[in-house]
Design a protein that fits this description.
The protein is of the alpha+beta class. It is about 35% helix and about 25% strand. The strands form two sheets. The chain has a five-stranded antiparallel sheet with strand order 1-2-3-9-4, with helices on both faces. Strand 2 and strand 3 form a beta hairpin.
């Protein structure tokens, strides 16, 4: 019985440590304003916090919190962690459910509410600068009426190319920024549960050896 309890604790700690994407509260930034990717050990800033900011303004506003623009590869890893399989492959029904779940976490930046696209929920956000000094736009574009979405990690819709000053001034109400930071320490709950599980197994083993 004690051995079973120890194994259950250890299993619970492993499940928590590999929970995928979870919402995290922050005393300054607000409740649920950070999404933690426990697979990649990264934390993502909600998109509504950087809406209508220029590239430079987003960098300067959140550098104190350890956030900076994510690379295209990091954004793609976030999509993969969310369970999105069709990245940069066009519109797909397979993308829809994981897109809804991810947008619920990072905040859906809806816009372009014309008569032909009133059901679209878009999450357009700029990435880190590449070697040419441009910032790519990675995005999720979903249609709730049709139950489909398009997920693009690497597009040609960018700012900064041949005009670096655009990074200082360009902003739009429907544009945000993919801001990310590394997780420096283990999640306290996960770490505590893992220690409890290992201690329980050690105690059971010690008592078993003593009784033999």
């Amino acid at each position: 019985m004690k051995l079973k309890f120890g194994l259950m604790l250890l299993a619970l700690s492993i499940n928590v440590a590999n929970a995928g994407l979870i919402s995290v509260d922050d005393l300054v930034l607000g409740d649920g304003k950070i999404t933690r990717d426990t697979n990649a050990q990264l934390e993502w800033l909600d998109l509504d916090l950087t809406a209508n900011l220029s590239w430079n303004a987003a960098e300067s506003s959140y550098a104190a919190f350890g956030f900076s623009h994510a690379t295209v590869a990091q954004v793609e890893s976030l999509f993969i962690s969310a369970g999105i399989s069709g990245i940069d492959t066009g519109t797909s029904a397979v993308n829809y459910t994981p897109s809804v779940e991810l947008q619920d976490l990072i905040t859906c930046r809806s816009g372009f509410n014309s008569t032909t696209s009133s059901s679209l929920c878009t999450s357009y956000a700029f990435t880190a600068l590449d070697s040419s000094g441009r910032s790519e736009l990675s995005w999720i574009n979903r249609n709730d009426t049709l139950g489909v979405s398009t997920v693009i990690a690497n597009s040609n819709n960018f700012i900064g190319t041949n005009k670096p000053s655009a990074l200082d001034t360009y902003h739009h109400t429907t544009r945000s920024h993919w801001m990310v930071r590394s997780i420096e320490v283990p999640e306290p709950t996960s770490f505590s549960l893992a220690v409890l599980g290992l201690l329980s197994l050690s105690l059971v083993k010690r008592r078993t050896n003593k009784n033999q």
